[in-house]
Amino acid sequence: QSALTQPASVSGSPGQSITISCTGTSSDVGGYNYVSWYQQHPGKAPKLMIYEVSNRPSGVSNRFSGSKSGNTASLTISGLQAEDEADYYCSSYTSSSTLGVFGGGTKLTVL
Amino acid sequence: EVQLVQSGAEVKKPGESLKISCKGSGYSFTSYWIGWVRQMPGKGLEWMGIIYPGDSDTRYSPSFQGQVTISADKSISTAYLQWSSLKASDTAMYYCARRFSSSPGVDYWGQGTLVTVSS
What we know:
Strand content of chain A: over 45%
Radius of gyration of chain B: 14 Å
Number of strands of chain B: 11
Oligomer: heterodimer
Helix content of chain B: under 10%
Number of strands of chain A: 9
Structural class of chain A: mainly beta
């Protein structure tokens, strides 16, 4: 199962907004509203930030938002803060595997 | 409060066996799929397999089928990941993760277990 495609890195200055893309196919991202996003700081476990494309778990800042268009999902972080610097992974349900599939990950640098 | 607490770091030699654990608390352990995710050094996340502790239904990624065994003991709310013969390439961080009840995403993660395999 091929991983979903994410940019290797993105960067932004404090206060700016950035968007991370996650591109799949009609068999995964495009076919189902089961895209999740995870934040992982160095040496830490991943943390759920967005589920089912655009839903935020309790406790996650409303600076984080998710969307989807066709086969591409996106995570947008507004009002960038230094603490947002981390790796971000998308994942999706896929018709070819009960387990689902992850993206390759994107390193966010806050300049 | 939902918690997944994993066993501690392990250092093993090639060819040795290993079983690591993940204890769930704060929820009905038998009602949610638990998965294992591998993260090799400096790399991304990979699903290894999942188990439904209620009936021990287990699914493996093709990449890990036959290489590891996933099990669960619902009497002590604990899931396991085991190897019968470790290889150096098994060196990685391993996370257990609870899947949503109604969708395949993960809502809670364990803290991770670092497995180092070296002669």
